[in-house]
Amino acid sequence: RVRLVESGGGSVQSGGSLRLACVVSGYIRNPYAMGWFRQAPGREREGVASIDASDHTDYADSVKGRFTISKDSTKNTMYLQMNSLKPEDTAMYYCAAGLAYWGEGTLVTISS
Prior knowledge:
Blueprint: E1 3-7, E2 10-13, E3 18-25, E4 34-39, E5 46-51, E6 57-59, E7 67-72, E8 77-82, E9 91-97, E10 101-102, E11 106-111
């Protein structure tokens, strides 16, 4: 059974940093892309960053230059380094593997 577990969320002031982690357990058959998504209260879930099997990365315009996605295949873990955080980054952050498997989320709250 595939399971994704996020960690690293919390409350920081504007301009601060957080590092999210997503640990994947279980076997996923084919090479897959992974990504981070977020959902703020009253808003739809949106893609934040993705990394494919070849380590090609992609970012939402709103986080380019501030967030960095990476993965450590030896640890089955994906990361999201978030710097220069803004109040509008406040959301529940979810990791996903191949869009078929999702974690339960970790809350990020940025105060001004």
